[in-house]
Design brief:
Largest interface: A-B, 69 and 69 residues
Family (chains A, B): Belongs to the metallo-dependent hydrolases superfamily. ATZ/TRZ family.
Number of strands of chain A: 17
Catalytic activity (chains A, B): guanine + H2O + H(+) = xanthine + NH4(+)
CATH architecture of the largest domain in chain A: Alpha-Beta Barrel
Oligomer: homodimer
Number of helices of chain A: 16
Radius of gyration of chain A: 22 Å
Subunit structure (chains A, B): Homodimer.
Strand content of chain A: 15-25%
CATH superfamily of the largest domain in chain A: Metal-dependent hydrolases
Distance between the termini of chain A: 11 Å
GO cellular component, one term (chains A, B): cytosol
Protein name (chains A, B): Guanine deaminase
Number of domains of chain A: 2
């Protein structure tokens, strides 16, 4: 990460458009046209205004034609426009959207032993999260997490912080300063018994008051939620009192913000929910009964849902964050994305650090392909074939799918006029005639005979942050690598 | 890979020990003590003589004590010895052993769509392999493959090349020149019907004659098989005639070399074997009946074995190469390593490029952990817990386990006196107080409070070739990265 850090642009003091110029991007642009298909726009010009909004997407334009026809049409003077050329072997791709990630667990990535959800929480997770009440430690951990995920092309994250107000506010400050679009949530967990005494909100009132404090802070630093926004975050039903969940549901309606939680991740957890909420028909029903299931709800995991639960989620318009790396790592199970789609539910991807070990949504997309194949192994015939997710589908999950999950489908996830320039420049250098690779290509070797579809597949399966050369959020360059 | 290539040491014209000096390695050494446990040797000195053999492993020695006590004891003059110090945040680890890899398929990594074994062979694999009769293309592909896998710390590979004699011989030349320990096999496939007409040995005699030519070549360039050795390579039962398999079994006994093939990878393949060999009781039985099942046999995959097949394999002392990345990618199934171990079978890891997309055995070890968790998801109670492989177990698979599979357990896979210095230096730099990482740490962030066990877990799950700083085979530095 050394390169990256030296090259980071100076942190702007605000996201004010007056500090920025209009920009022209030239080259190949790849994004999801539909869930099943990527669109490849070659020799294309994309114009981004000083506020970070895409104002033109024009195939068939090189620099010369852009300067003589396109910029004049926009009323932009050639000398005033910042030009970025993708160049040979490069393409622009929408920034990734991580719809479920615990910033506070970042130092624990890869550390999970043979645990499953409930023992993992007690052994690894609660002690680390609790320790972030130390603001110095929190700053170090959150800065590392945001820098690392930006380097992997994550332009938007839905973060869980900890129960600590100051540390949660700090995470929002860091996201704004480093320029990562983020939903930042203070974790609510007030239920006696499951939550450890050393790491618990004192009461439902305490949960709600502290949540309100973080909402107020996030809104004070970014009043129009241009980069950072609050998200209500009841940890999960076993950790929350009914009173707290009801209070958060009311707050959600009042403030009209997103809410995020976990559902049906692990069989032991599901049993526990049954015991704790004997009056509820299912895990999903617990959230529904508390008023927490709506169009602005992001449910992580949803691995072991019943038909009826999936139908309820679809009816409420709630969204699901699929976390394949976490599915496999802590042996939770294999979520069935095709089945969720068949029910009409919107799905995005989450790294779920540190239940998932990887900070990368590219890796999550790869693992979504693999987990879907493990789902397929348990099926027969046509269902088996259908269960497998394609390259195009998993990249959709990581971009447009994620945008829908966090309610930003009009703003991010693709290259269309009116959307924001949240993007990454991907580079895949060629292996030369002697079998040696050019500078900075990372782990992908392109031989030159591959189709564009094959190059994108190679990037999906062997690419990493080394291929992510530059990252922009709302037009601002937030990461670059030589 | 740019850095790596510039830094590659000049290719020595031979592996003659006279060109080399005695070497002293100092720092932390980590290797498998047993299948279940890693040994951490801190403040340790390892002495490697000019032939690449470890002659001392001494805990409690720093440079000063080594110079005053250890080197004199060995009769080595201080000034004549090359010293390598691991340094803070670094450790030496045995080189990885890839027990199943198709060098000829390297350009196709990541390109497999939604295919499974048999259509994957026809769509992607046979056309590429066939094209490597072009020696210039073969040189480019094989060089890229060997450099790439060396960069990932693979010090030994069991390679499938193609049916082409010259290209196969070229692969052996390249391995010897670049210093990667390798078993190099010309692929035998002579059965009409399954093999495409454009890519098939003409007859059993043709298969055997051409195999003998490559064996002779490999033995001529490295008469004592110090770095490269031949391996007989009947592709798999559906692609080989009975006559060819019998001939290869005879050749194996005559030459006392390894033999490698595939078994029980995919359900369609198993059905096909049943049709083609109606007289055989099982897929395994086909090889057994042809005399191909013995202590020097490496069987790739072995996913869907019956109890009886596993027992036969154990009785014959044949070995299994587990290829988890390939298991998941082309939806073959999830091999059951714990069950194979319970049967008493030795197991190693294979990347199986390009059925598996990743060139890295570290990644294969990671995927072995994940695939074992998918196996576990189908089991209950204690069996479920047991099925999961630990960090220690998957790293064993990639080193000592692999060494047993290729019959080199006395020579490689660990740090013991009398073994060869096939090793890699791993670096895991610290995140500083501001959440920024030092130079060259790649994708792993260490905060400083982690135990050594946790650091190794972090490396397993998020490490990549950037953490592999230097690689040695038989004492020779074959890769380094700044």
């Amino acid at each position: 990460m050394g390169d990256m850090i030296r090259d980071l642009p100076p942190v702007a003091s605000s996201s004010s458009p007056t500090t920025r110029r209009n920009q022209l991007f030239l080259g190949t642009f790849v994004h999801s046209k539909t869930r099943e298909a990527l669109e490849y726009l070659h020799d294309t010009a994309v114009c981004v205004d000083a506020s970070g909004t895409i104002v033109a997407v024009e195939p068939g334009y090189d620099l010369r034609r852009s300067e003589t026809e396109l910029l004049p049409r926009l009323g932009w003077k050639v000398g005033d426009v910042e030009v970025h050329v993708g160049g040979e072997g490069h393409f622009f791709f929408p920034g990734f959207i991580d719809t479920h990630v615990h910033a506070s667990q970042y130092p624990n990535v890869g550390i999970f032993g043979k645990s499953t959800l409930l023992d993992w929480l007690n052994t690894y997770t609660f002690p680390l999260e609790s320790s972030l009440k130390d603001q110095k430690k929190a700053r170090r951990v959150y800065t590392a997490c945001v820098r690392r995920t930006l380097a992997h092309g994550t332009t938007t994250s839905a973060y869980y912080a900890t129960i600590d107000v100051d540390a949660t506010n700090l995470l929002a400050d860091i996201c704004l300063a480093l320029g990562q679009r983020a939903f930042v949530g203070r974790v609510c967990m007030d239920r006696e018994g499951l939550c450890p005494e050393y790491y618990r909100d004192e009461s439902p009132e305490d949960s709600l008051r502290k949540t309100r404090e973080t909402v107020d802070h996030v809104r004070s630093i970014d009043p129009r939620s241009e980069i950072v926004a609050p998200i209500l975050t009841p940890r999960f039903a076993p950790a929350c009192s009914s009173a707290a969940m009801k209070g958060l549901a009311d707050m959600q309606k009042e403030l009209d913000v997103l809410v995020q939680t976990h559902v049906s991740e692990n069989e032991g957890e599901i049993e526990l929910v049954k015991e704790l909420y004997p009056e509820s028909e299912s895990y999903t029903d617990v959230y529904d009964a508390h008023g927490l299931l709506g169009e602005k709800t992001v449910l992580a995991h949803a691995i072991h849902l019943s038909e009826k639960e999936a139908t309820t989620i679809a009816e409420r318009g709630a969204k699901i964050s699929h976390c394949p790396c976490s599915n496999s790592s802590i042996t939770s199970g294999a979520a069935q994305v095709r089945w969720l789609w068949d029910k009409g539910i919107d799905v995005g991807l989450g790294t779920d650090m540190s239940g998932g070990y990887s900070p990368s949504i590219l890796d999550a997309a790869r693992q979504a392909a693999l987990v879907s194949r493990h789902v397929a192994m348990g099926l027969r015939g046509e269902e088996r074939e259908r269960a497998k997710l394609t390259v195009e589908e998993v990249l959709y999950l990581g971009t447009k799918g994620g945008a829908k999950v966090v309610g930003l489908q009009e703003k991010i996830g693709g290259f269309e006029v009116g959307m924001q320039w949240d993007a990454q420049l991907i580079g895949l250098p060629l292996v030369d005639e002697d079998g040696e690779q050019g500078e900075g290509g990372g782990n992908v070797d392109v031989f030159g005979w591959e189709s564009w579809e094959d190059r994108v597949a190679k990037w999906l399966f062997n690419g990493d942050d080394r291929n992510t050369k530059t990252v922009w959020v709302k037009g601002r360059m937030v990461h670059s690598r030589r």
